[in-house]
Design brief:
With 198 residues, the protein is mainly α. It contains eight helices and no strands.
Length: 198
């Protein structure tokens, strides 16, 4: 379950790929930060916060709206980068890269919803704390495997990826994917609003 949510291309994965293809060694530290954040958020959800949120439809609606806005802004920025033909990565100092990685995790409603509400909510259904811990550990393992694989693969591929055109195509694809995600979330939110207030 966790793997199916994490593998979907979002701002986290897009940033990791961009840094890896740019051959920044810090990409591995960023992958570790992503795993640590996922672990904390899944644990929070497993303690019951995810179930509490999912029981309030308005909160789920708010998450959809905020996530749509987040993906829209990220997508438009990627498309702008594609139009300008920016450098392989736009954050060159280590501290700036780490800050950006943390922001695209903790300020991303999609990450919060997936880890706390969906994965954590399922974990919270187990009455036994040991079972919750085992389920959560499995989810964190999926996160670790995915981000480690993505970091290694993108870093290794970086030696073959050269030229501004390649970066423009990458930004264009990421931007379009983010806009599609935003449109899907807007559609879901509109359906909810129509059903509740229509």
């Amino acid at each position: 379950m966790a793997a199916s949510l994490i593998v979907a291309i979002g701002p986290q994965n897009a940033l990791l790929i961009r840094l890896g293809l740019g051959r920044l060694r810090g990409v591995f530290a960023i992958a570790a930060i992503y795993v640590a954040i996922d672990a904390v958020l899944i644990a929070v959800g497993a303690l019951g916060v995810g179930s509490a949120i999912s029981s309030v439809p308005l909160l789920k609606f708010a998450f959809s709206v905020f996530a749509a806005g987040f993906f829209l802004l990220f997508g438009l920025r990627s498309l702008l980068n594609a139009a300008r033909g920016t450098a392989p990565f736009d954050v060159q100092d280590g501290q700036g890269t780490i800050r950006k990685a943390v922001l695209v995790s903790l300020l991303n409603p999609g990450v919060i919803f997936d880890t706390i509400v969906l994965v954590g909510g399922v974990a919270a259904q187990y009455d036994d704390l040991t079972q919750r811990a085992i389920f959560s550990l499995g989810a964190v393992t999926a996160s670790s495997l995915w981000f480690a694989t993505l970091a290694v693969a993108s870093y290794s591929a970086g030696r073959y990826v050269t030229g501004a055109q390649v970066w423009r195509i990458l930004d264009l694809v990421v931007g379009l994917l983010m806009l599609i995600l935003a449109a899907t979330l807007v559609q879901d939110a509109a359906g909810f609003a129509a059903a509740r207030w229509g």
